[in-house]
Task: inverse folding
């Protein structure tokens, strides 16, 4: 199958390349063309996922598709942006190029997430390589000048994270050993690795409310330190308030779970600062407070666990 | 060097990440934020270049940088778009991650082209891999509804290509054997491989004038066939009018040179249709005419060379 046929069969399909009021030209010309409404600005973010670096070989193609798009969409959530389209630059080893079942299943996984977040595939590039490499760039819109940055936290603000009864901090990192051990496992805690839920709705709701925001991808403490640097503040966290899921606590000790929550990567919850939580939805948990800048960025009173350096894929 | 330090040292530099009226947020937050003027729309295109697939191992890092950005910018030229910024997703093998000289030189090559076309680096992703893989996405603006498509050619239009006294059709493909033989060669014809010149200025000038347009990346005949399909027309070309450069004719026979021009890839000139060439700049050559749709798309009267299937990197 040549490049044009492969794109036509697996990517330029109505389930992936569906129409959108924000897309004037989609797959098939030299560029895709986006129509950004006059009162909005465009947020963009790109993420690369590589087999055996960011996910294990032997995983279900469907799961690779869902994870690739979810983790990238999470950056739009962190800015409070509404997704409007994504591009896919995929480099395929020979055996995958010829594996229609793999390609169909990968495309189905992408389509499930694309439809869930109303974010069609609008362009990209298909190349051959010896290593499966997936780069996705997402595009989203926010009201002009209102996107959530890392730099606005102020002393006295509350530090909050998103979580839910099913998914909380540490789940992504806690799932990783399970997934590495059994790449096709995609239920229970492992589902939070393959389908982390980008907090798009919460991000959009935080516009005009959060003073700073990011998504937790490299570990809570390391990521909150980015807000501390950008905002020139420190933060004091209350260990007892860090939300941990039942599934995580079923598999790990309290101490292990807390360490995953503080330093594990791959959570894709939002961490942010606000003046007041009275109008926040129930999946928002207050875990600390912004304080005057000191030598440490994030301060963990009474913490006695291991050093928290955060997770690095690099 | 960790990911953050590497980005800071080689990519988040003032020569690459320079300020622009169209960029509200650049490297350093969860997303970059683009401000698209109310009367404009946004054109985007992504290209992946892989070592030993799209360029030979052992090439100068500087040349890899220039080529990567030039070929992607060419897609903006094909839409008539003005570049406003690009993202870089780069996957680095261990030996390059630790080779400051390589990284500095690559970054200098990118910066040379970024500055030439006023297109700053605004975001991306840096990952590790066993193969050097570079995905660049470019972003440009055109007046709303006016971007050049492949679909508007009409019977009677003239078929034109860009060329200059130094660079013409076939140069990219003619340079390829030289570059494969000696990857560090970057003068003479080889320069057209490492620094193909995206026809940004011409593209912008064609807005409102060209009825269809694309850039020649897979071979003139194959690419013009895309216009024929999208516009439901055929084209009759005049072999004698195909522009060939002196450098190409110095190295190859007339027949070889013509074959490179018709079927070689990597030219990155513009091919387009217009009603009238009286207001066209001197680097525009008329090579044929749009005719009623027939079985063949592009018709080459009296052509007796080899079959022209076009170039495929895939």
Result:
């Amino acid at each position: 199958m040549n490049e044009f046929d492969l794109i036509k069969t697996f990517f330029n399909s109505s389930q992936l390349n569906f129409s959108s009021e924000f897309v004037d030209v989609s797959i098939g010309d030299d560029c895709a063309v986006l129509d950004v409404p006059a009162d909005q600005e465009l947020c963009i973010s790109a993420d690369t996922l590589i087999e055996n670096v960011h996910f294990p070989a032997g995983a279900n193609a469907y799961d690779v598709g869902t994870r690739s798009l979810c983790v990238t969409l999470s950056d739009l959530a962190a800015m409070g942006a509404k997704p409007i389209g994504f591009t896919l630059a995929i480099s395929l080893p020979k055996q995958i190029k010829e594996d229609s079942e793999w390609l169909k299943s990968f495309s189905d996984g992408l389509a499930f997430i694309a439809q869930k977040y109303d974010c069609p595939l609008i362009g990209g590039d298909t190349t051959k390589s010896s290593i499966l490499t997936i780069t996705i760039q997402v595009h989203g819109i926010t009201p002009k000048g209102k996107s959530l940055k890392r730099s606005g936290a102020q002393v006295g603000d509350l530090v909050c994270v998103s979580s839910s009864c099913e998914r909380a901090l540490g789940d992504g990192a806690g799932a990783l050993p399970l997934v590495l051990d059994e790449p096709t496992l995609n239920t229970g805690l492992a589902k939070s690795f393959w389908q982390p839920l980008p907090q798009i709705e919460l991000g959009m709701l935080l516009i005009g409310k959060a003073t700073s925001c990011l998504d937790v991808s490299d570990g809570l403490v390391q990521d909150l330190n980015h807000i501390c640097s950008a905002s020139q503040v420190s933060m004091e966290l209350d260990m007892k308030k860090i939300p941990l899921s039942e599934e995580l606590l079923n598999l790990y000790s309290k101490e292990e779970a807390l360490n995953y929550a503080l330093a594990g990567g791959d959570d894709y919850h939002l961490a942010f600062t606000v003046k007041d939580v009275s109008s926040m939805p129930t999946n928002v948990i207050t875990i600390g407070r912004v304080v005057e800048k000191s030598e440490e960025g994030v301060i963990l009173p009474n913490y006695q666990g291991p050093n928290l350096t955060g997770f690095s894929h690099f």
